[in-house]
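Morning!

As promised:
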Amino acid sequence: MKLIVSVKRVIDYNIKVRVKADNTGVDLANVKMALNPFCEIAVEEAIRLKEAGVASEVVVVSIGPTAVQEQLRTALALGADRAIHVETDELPEPLNVAKLLAKVIEAEQPGLVILGKQSIDSDNNQVGQMLAALAGRPQGTFASEVKVEGGKVLVTREVDGGLRTLSLDLPAIVTTDLRLNEPRYAKLPDIMKAKRKPLDVKTPADLGVELKQHITQLKVETPAQREAGIKVDSVDALIDKLKNEAKVI
Amino acid sequence: MNILLIAEHDNSALNPATLSAVSAATQIGGELTVLVAGADCQNVADEAAKVSGVSKVLLADNAAYAKGLAENLSALIAEVATGYSHIIAAASSTSKDTMPRVAALLDVGQLSEIIAVESADIFKRPIYAGNAIATVQSQDAVKVITVRTSAFDKAAAEGGCAGVETVANSRDSGTSNFVNEELVKSDRPELTAASVVISGGRGLGSAENFALLENVADKLGAAIGASRAAVDAGFVSNDLQVGQTGKIVAPELYIAVGISGAIQHLAGMKESKVIVAINKDEEAPIFQLADYGLVGDLFKVLPELEAKL
């Protein structure tokens, strides 16, 4: 069975985000970029399925400017077999990403598609679900466990109040939650080997997709900052403040 | 404007999160129809009909919708959607699963977790884990929206008298089947609905030590929360996690115990009305946004707090 993993290039999660002075967005100039953490988990899960003999090939896809090839190489170093870069000027919005991925899937015919549940930049949490709708396939979102058996995939999902397990017909779309696995680090020899693994570049036109704008970002602002309050020196003082000043207990 | 709001429920009662979504819908303005999709969920429809501001309730009562499977629900919603300008739902694990699927079926974008309504097509939403707020405008004829419930007051649960209409529809994809679920049972208030939340972090040191927190929670009628560090360390189950990747809460009082204050965690609780931090490290970032900070050993502070409350 072939697996497809889609990954996104985002600001490194350790970097403090700064909003641009003209409020047009977040300052990404000279900022460290990385594989989106949820996508890293998706890559890891696919590689584990290959190591377990469930999958025969792992194809990693990313959409965006040339720079996303850096993240594709990272995924190849982690163990993906080949990469597809769909080249666009900017990072397109979720529905466009889903349409491009739907075309890649149509061509590649994977048994399972694994994506991160959301990216830590736009926090949309949409692409996997949209892709499943466009492909007309079942979805297992926010997965904390994935098991392939007997032509189905069992996905345990993190839902409000606990866990829920679904059985999905293959091909299916799975999106990863944080506790699905702990991603490995790429080893230096694998990073060298990854440079020679195949990476195809396609355009939206090659895939027959016209990108459309659905949502316009008008401005980006820094959220209102909370002021630090006071320190109290004892439990008695704390209870007094909560009762008589804040009046919340 | 004609708004279709998807009710959040467990087939027996309307989830209060729905009331926050009703408030957001009311701010957009126009006629408000609530869709209750589930199985044996007449009670939920009756409850929804009483919510202030609701003009009509649609009830899709069918076994296909019992477990909130996204494939079936999205097909239903996309079919019912005709004629509506907005399709809106409280952000929950069900709606986050279903609504993007609805948007794709309608060939429109989705606005995720809005925190403010600026106009019928302009909204604010947090990005970068709440470290930036984007103002966004929808270009689509139909706006698919999820609402961050902590950002909106709850509409009155009583006062409305909408009529309930039945939607005879069964959309079962047959490709996704419910196997089982493990829901955590608790006598405490639900985390996102509680007026007081007390959360523990890595500083608690073990699962057993969460009992110290529970004792204080019992005195305050509080819900228990946890930081991601505490969840990852296996002290408590993941449904207690407060943060960008867990629950977003905004109670009257939030008490953070042994939590340093990683951005991840702050994104989930910084809208709380009053924040108390108890930590032995006086340099902990949590003190920078706490209204009241107490530097001290939580193993002494918690029993004292329990005794004196």
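The mean pLDDT of chain A is 96.

Hope this helps with the figure draft.
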